[in-house]
Design goal:
The complex is a heterodimer of chains A (269) and B (580). With 269 residues, chain A is α/β, with parallel strands linked by helices. Helices cover 38% and strands 25% of the residues of chain A. The relative contact order of chain A is 0.18. Chain B is extended, with a radius of gyration of 36 Å. The chains are: A alpha/beta (269), B alpha+beta (580). Chains A and B meet through helix 3, strand 6, helix 4 and helix 7 of A and helix 16 and helix 17 of B.
């Protein structure tokens, strides 16, 4: 535990000169009797992509789900410690997760569009939050989101088709459009490309790279190559501990930890 | 990595086991196909036999009786008011109509028999028609009423064994005061006569063999029992002796008792029931039931034989003859049995219908639907989506599952204990029945709803929560629409089970005889009622044979309702089913 703490403080500093968007200090997660995350602390910069890597079951998805309090929906999950977005504590019962999730979007591993039309998929978030006063405004938001997600050209003439009729890659971009339609500050992506073929993956990666200009993106990935391609910061998790966190180039070329090196060179995992 | 020899060995082992694997596969498939065929056959037999049994209930023989609505009889006060008409003697009107139709029927007992062609309940129906249209008073009116249930069955060929033979010999008829003699020029009666004699001799032989059997038994029993057997044998012998004597005839004639088939001569609208047949087969004497004007005929005539003896049936020969004459004259015709669909229950089968039970079922089902579906679905949504998972909710869940397995009669007891004893709701009413059936249907609906909520993939919930929907929004906007087909199916199947339920309703008094159909309106909910399955039960246990086809027809109506309910469930599921 002391070594974990020492490491945590080691990578606690703000990397480079970027603004800190999400600041995490001493987060523990318990599922019932089982502890899934041990004392994680890190600072995630704005307008960049941060990748979480690590073997299955290392706690990276659990950690990701802390940021939009998705763990609240799991019975028996207890999150302790401090999570701040722009200096505001979010791991607090007084903060409504609904308000939080309006500013922290999430994209899941398997594309999960609603079984409704493409238009309704994108419009759902703005509608329930009341972001559009008129139909024209809502149309505008839907179009902008689909344009930002790089899907407008493919679906503009069939907005009333069901979202589930799209291909896997298109569905995943539709889901991203749905997430950015509510104009979030942070977008969480839980292995967004693991169910896609290489061409769809390339398109989604390209999209992530574009979105980085405006959003703080945190993604979990199993593909080291993907982490190297799209992320600026990388965090390596192992057995519920944050082992190493730093600029992607550094992690991949010059890891400080033996375990990180073993993992990225494929010696275990 | 694997050596070639090892590979070959694996293949050999697999090949050796293969036939056994395929055999068990084909055995399983055969068993499945056989099971399906057997169940289809059983289903077809079941529905087919009920359907066949119900056929006589769909048509009714009706009497179109000309009646004179004399003011003195139907409107004693003379002011055409309802009160006055209610004092009218409509039974007399019907009787007069029958008298007019059969002017030559005389004698008290013959008259009584004549008036039994229809049920006296019809006088109330005639009264209602006159009240509805007082303009009928004083006019000649043709009143349509159903023929008595036994005669209706008779015309449908279900009551007696009979046959008619067309004859064309010349008949001499000599009508006397008490008896009518008939002489034919040829031996037209010879075959029937021989049959009757043979029947008597056969009966005598069987009696004699029973007497002989008794005497053989006497050797192996004690003295007291032997005496009894001996006496019985003597009686058998005596009866056999009488039969043989009767069969031989007396004064050249054979006497026809009520234990023998009836022989009836029908000719030109007249009918003579034979009491004696000449042994030469050329004629005999009998009682004229419908008089024949001429005393000689060289036209065709009918020899009508009813093989079921008069002593062993509910309707006497004269009623058969009158009925046949009415059919001949076109006064009795067969039509669609609208009484069955328009009337409530009645003690007379020909007037009994399912209307009351059907209305009762509809009202009861409305109460069940309004109570159990909202409560059931709300309970299921709360338990599945919102309730914390702890010991208490586990307990509730276990108990709901147990309730689904509780025998339905227990719910009837519960209904008596709570709704009648505590809340003093009126017994035997649709509102009470609906409450009890809701108790019974609730667990089914809750379980079906929870199952279909569970079947909605969690990714949909996560997606909704992920864009910031609240828990309620994610349930009502996304989960519930996806679960709707399953919820609808479960609810409709629960309701169709309630529609077919009998036991709990017997407990709460929905088993009464209801002669007035409850109205399909708000007050109908608190009027005494019965429901279709209970009506079926009542009819099957009734004494009159004519209730049996009506019970079968009520089953067909109930099955039709239940099958269409289930078809609606399948249709809704297909229509709203969405894939993701």
């Amino acid at each position: 535990m002391t070594t974990a703490q020492a490491q945590a403080t080691l990578y606690h500093d703000i990397p480079e000169a970027r603004d800190v968007k999400v600041a995490i200090a001493g987060v523990d997660v318990h599922y019932g009797d089982k502890q899934a995350l041990f004392d994680v602390s890190m600072q995630i910069p704005d307008r960049s992509v941060t990748a979480f890597i690590g073997p299955s079951g290392c706690g990276k998805s659990t950690f990701l789900r802390c940021v939009n309090r998705m763990n609240d929906t799991i019975d028996g999950a207890v999150v302790t410690g401090s999570l701040k977005i722009d200096g505001t504590e979010i791991n607090d019962k007084t903060i409504d997760p609904v308000v939080l999730r309006a500013s922290v979007g999430m994209v899941f591993q398997k594309p999960n569009p609603f079984p409704k039309s493409i238009y309704d998929n994108v419009a759902y978030g703005p509608k329930i939050h009341g972001l559009a006063a008129t139909r024209e405004e809502l149309d505008g938001i839907v179009e902008q989101s689909l344009v930002k997600a790089g899907l407008w050209g493919e679906v503009s003439d069939r907005l009333t088709d069901p979202g589930t009729s799209l291909s896997g890659g298109q569905q995943q971009r539709l889901v991203i459009a749905r997430a950015i339609a509510v104009n979030p500050e942070v977008i969480l992506m839980d292995e967004p490309c693991s169910a896609l073929d290489p061409i769809a993956t390339a398109k989604v990666e390209e999209l992530i790279d574009e979105l980085r200009e405006n959003y703080c993106i945190i993604m979990v990935t199993h593909s080291m190559a993907q982490a190297a391609r799209v992320s600026q910061m990388t965090a390596f998790f192992h057995l519920g501990n944050l082992v190493e966190y730093g600029p992607t180039e550094e992690i991949f070329t010059n890891p400080r930890e033996r375990r990180t090196q073993d993992y990225i060179t494929g010696r275990f995992g | 990595m694997t050596e070639p020899s090892k590979k070959a060995a694996t293949r050999e082992i697999v090949e050796r086991n293969l036939p056994a694997r395929y055999r068990s596969e084909s055995r399983f498939r055969t068993a499945g196909i056989v099971a399906i065929i057997v169940s289809v056959i059983i289903l077809v037999l079941l529905i087919g036999s009920i359907g066949l049994k119900s056929l006589p209930a769909y048509t009714a023989w009706q009497i179109h009786l000309p009646v004179a609505l004399d003011q003195a009889l139907v409107d004693p006060e003379g002011d055409s008011s309802e009160a006055s008409i209610r004092q009218g003697s409509f039974g007399r009107v019907l009787q007069n109509g029958m008298r007019e139709t059969f002017p030559d029927v005389s004698g008290r007992s013959n008259m009584r028999s004549l008036f039994q062609l229809y049920t006296s309940l019809n006088s109330t129906r005639l009264m209602d028609q006159v009240i509805a249209d007082p303009g009928l008073i004083g006019s000649d009116y043709v009143f349509t009423m159903p023929l008595g249930d036994d005669l209706d069955l008779y015309l449908k060929g279900m009551l007696v064994e009979d046959r008619s033979v067309e004859m064309n010999g010349v008949l001499e008829i000599e009508a006397g005061r008490r008896r009518t003699n008939i002489q034919s020029q040829s031996a037209d009666f010879a075959i029937v006569l021989a049959e009757l004699q043979q029947m008597m001799i056969d009966e005598a032989l069987s009696l004699e063999s029973r007497a002989a059997a008794n005497r053989t038994l006497m050797a192996s029993v004690d003295a007291e029992e032997a005496d009894r057997l001996n006496e019985e044998a003597a009686r058998f012998d005596q009866r056999a002796q009488v039969l043989r004597t009767d069969a031989a005839g007396e004064n050249g004639q054979l006497e026809l008792s009520d234990d023998l088939p009836s022989v009836i001569v029908e000719f030109r609208g007249g009918a003579i029931r034979m009491n004696r047949l000449d042994l030469n087969g050329q004629g005999g004497s009998g009682e004229s039931i419908l008089s024949i004007a001429e005393n000689r005929s060289d036209e065709a005539w009918t020899l009508y034989v009813v093989d079921t003896p008069q002593a062993r049936r509910r309707i006497p020969d004269n009623q058969l003859i009158w009925t046949r004459a009415l059919v001949e004259r076109g006064i009795v015709t067969q039509a669609f049995n609208h009484y069955f669909f328009a009337n409530a229950d009645s003690r007379e089968p020909e007037l009994a219908g399912i209307r009351g039970a059907l209305n009762g079922s509809i009202l009861t089902l409305i109460v069940t639907l309004l109570l159990s579906i909202p409560v059931g679905i709300a309970t299921a949504i709360y338990l599945e989506e919102f309730a914390p998972k702890n010991k208490f909710t586990d307990l509730i869940e276990v108990n709901i599952n147990n309730l689904a397995a509780v025998p339905s009669i227990i719910f009837g007891l519960l209904g008596v204990a709570i709704f009648i004893d505590v809340f003093s709701l009126p017994r035997g009413t649709p509102v009470l029945g609906g409450l009890v059936l809701s108790l019974m249907t609730l667990p089914t609906i809750i379980i079906a709803t929870r199952a279909s909520l569970k079947a909605v993939p969690p990714s949909i919930r996560q997606a909704a929560l992920g864009v910031g929907a609240s828990r309620t929004q994610s349930v009502f906007h996304h989960v519930l629409p996806l679960a709707t087909p399953g919820i609808l199916t479960g609810s409709i199947i629960g309701l169709s089970r309630a529609l077919g339920e009998t036991a709990p309703l017997l407990m709460i008094g929905m088993v009464a005889f209801i002669a007035d159909a409850p109205k399909l309106s708000l007050e109908g909910f608190t009027e005494p009622a019965t429901v279709l399955p209970v009506q079926i039960y009542l009819w099957y246990s009734a004494a009159e044979r004519a209730f049996e086809p009506r019970a079968a027809a009520a089953i067909i109506v109930l099955l039709t309702l239940i099958i269409s309910f289930n078809a609606v469930a399948v249709y809704l599921r297909r229509k709203f089913e969405r894939r993701w």
